[in-house]
Specification:
Blueprint: E1 3-4, E2 18-19, E3 25-26, H1 30-43, H2 61-69, H3 77-84, H4 88-94, H5 96-104, E4 112-115, E5 124-128, E6 134-138, E7 145-148, H6 149-167, H7 171-193, H8 197-202, E8 205-206, H9 207-217, H10 220-235, H11 238-245, E9 246-249, E10 252-255, E11 262-264, H12 265-268, H13 274-289, H14 294-300, E12 304-311, E13 322-328, E14 335-342, H15 349-352, H16 360-371, E15 380-385, E16 391-398, H17 413-434, H18 437-444, H19 449-478
């Protein structure tokens, strides 16, 4: 295994300041930016975003998933299908590539921001900011790329339609929730468009403030449940991962073996190559370190590499290479658990063009830093040649750093609506940081036209998602694909 890093210019999404041919930044007035948004609305009316009909050339959904499987760990692909078949909502979580192709066939506003590319409701959550306060934000950036802002909003509202059906909410309840998400995004974008640049850059959703607002309208039972979930998130640290994922072997901590979900590197290496693999991983950490700011490099230098293991994570990501890496500092009670996750080409690239950076690990990191007001202090990237001799890109971050997400199975319709408004605000803030908030706000307008269009789209796309889910179920039943159920 060998490693390398690449230094590339930061991806520059479509935003208010424009670069001229010579690299000079041209700044437009708020009036000029608003005029651009209104011109885009005249060309692509807001109601056009409510339309959804599958293209006659739409590929078979199982073919799309099977094409993705070609670059994944073969023995893990059945686990991915098994997780996607748990419910239509689980399928939706793994179907970002399908929806990217569908969105590419629809109307485009022409107003770009750095988009998540997979902005469904389960890809938002809490984590610890560098000041250790818990904040709420978008938290998955595997597919991030500059693109039309509305693609993220459509994926978000459709996820609420799919999840609402999964929870058994009726059409009226779902409609109210979806409208609240879209309205929150639109109104928040107007709020951000009026802010000073530095104020916009620093704004964030602190969990304490979110909790206060939620508590004011929640039932006693809902408040208790939220307090429990927050406490659970706070407890998810390297120390907890250390206790749960390691054991003592000959006086040294080693990651447990729980195949196929957790497989230590020592079990994947060829006999007699364990020492070489360990040295290669230590070298990987040293190489990744160069992508960090100097102060974080100094911090990382205080830790030594101990062990690594391949770990199955998520739903859509299953089958990509994801590693957990154990580092120890002062002694055996001073752990740092890292996650090195493979970064493949974004599912948006076939429709929006390739990233401006050659490393997909860097693409993910740069996109995350643009969309989040505060990111993991250990966030970085590396390119490595693996045990199979194939060069792949990875991004690294702390494995558990007080991370938590909403428990969809526990949310009643009113709590779902509150959560939806928070997601809409958060996504608007992420887009406003990298895109032209004034132009986007002008495009959205002050009426509910955009909200109504997206409510129509969300339900229509939830129908499509169910058809695609049924196609995968049929493929598994016929033996076309192998799906492995987890106990």
């Amino acid at each position: 295994m060998s490693t390398e890093t690449t230094e590339q210019p930061t991806t520059t999404p479509d935003r208010a300041p424009k670069r001229s041919g010579g690299g000079k930044v041209v700044h437009f007035t708020p009036e000029e930016r608003a005029a651009r948004g209104k011109a885009a609305r005249a060309e692509i009316p807001r109601k056009a975003h409510g339309e959804w009909e599958p293209s006659s050339q739409r590929p078979d959904p199982v073919d799309v998933l099977e094409e993705q499987a070609k670059t994944r760990v073969p023995e893990l692909v059945p686990i991915r299908y098994g997780r996607m078949l748990v419910s239509p909502f689980a399928f939706y979580r793994g179907g970002a590539a399908l929806m990217a192709g569908d969105l590419a066939e629809g109307p485009r506003s022409g107003l770009h921001a750095q988009i998540c590319g997979d902005a469904h409701l389960a890809n938002f959550g809490v984590y610890a900011a560098p000041d250790r306060r818990l904040i709420f934000s978008v938290n998955d950036f595997d597919e991030t790329l500059p693109g039309p802002f509305e693609w993220d909003v459509k994926r978000l509202v459709a996820s609420f339609a799919v999840a609402g059906r999964y929870r058994g909410f009726n059409a009226k309840e779902r409609g109210r929730i979806i409208a609240a998400v879209a309205r929150s995004y639109r109104e928040s974008m107007h709020q951000f468009a009026s802010m000073r640049n530095l104020d916009l850059w620093y704004v964030r959703a602190d969990l304490e403030e979110v909790s206060r607002e939620f508590s004011a309208m929640a039932t006693r039972r809902q408040r208790k449940r939220m307090e429990k979930n927050v406490a659970h998130a706070r407890s998810k640290t390297s120390l907890k991962a250390f206790d749960k994922l390691t054991r003592l072997v000959d006086g040294e901590r080693r990651i447990i073996s729980d195949p196929p979900l957790i497989v230590p590197i020592r079990e994947l290496a060829e006999p007699g190559q364990e020492a070489n693999v360990s040295e290669a991983y230590a070298d990987l950490i040293r190489t990744y370190r160069r992508t960090l700011a100097v102060d974080r490099r100094k911090l990382l230098e205080r830790f030594r590499y101990v062990d690594a293991a391949r770990k199955v994570v998520g739903v859509g990501s299953v089958g990509t290479r994801a590693w957990i890496v154990l580092l120890l500092g002062r002694d055996n009670d001073d752990p740092l658990f890292m996650q090195a996750k493979e970064a493949q080409p974004s599912v948006l690239e076939p429709h929006l063009g390739k990233s401006e950076v050659s490393s997909h690990g860097q693409r993910v990191v740069e996109g995350q830093r643009l969309m989040q007001s505060a990111s993991d202090i250990m966030l970085g990237w590396v390119t490595a040649v693996g045990l199979d001799g194939v060069k792949r890109d990875f991004y690294l971050r702390q494995l558990w750093d007080s991370k938590g997400s909403a428990r969809i199975d526990e949310l009643e319709p009113n709590a779902f609506e509150v959560y939806g408004r928070l997601c809409g605000w958060t996504l608007a803030k992420a887009h406003a940081r990298s895109g032209d908030a004034v132009a986007i706000a002008a495009y959205l307008g002050t009426s509910g036209a955009f909200d109504r269009a997206l409510a129509t789209f969300a339900e229509a796309y939830a129908d499509q998602n169910e058809r695609d889910y049924d196609a995968l179920k049929e493929a598994a039943a016929s033996g076309r694909v192998t799906a492995e159920k987890e106990v």
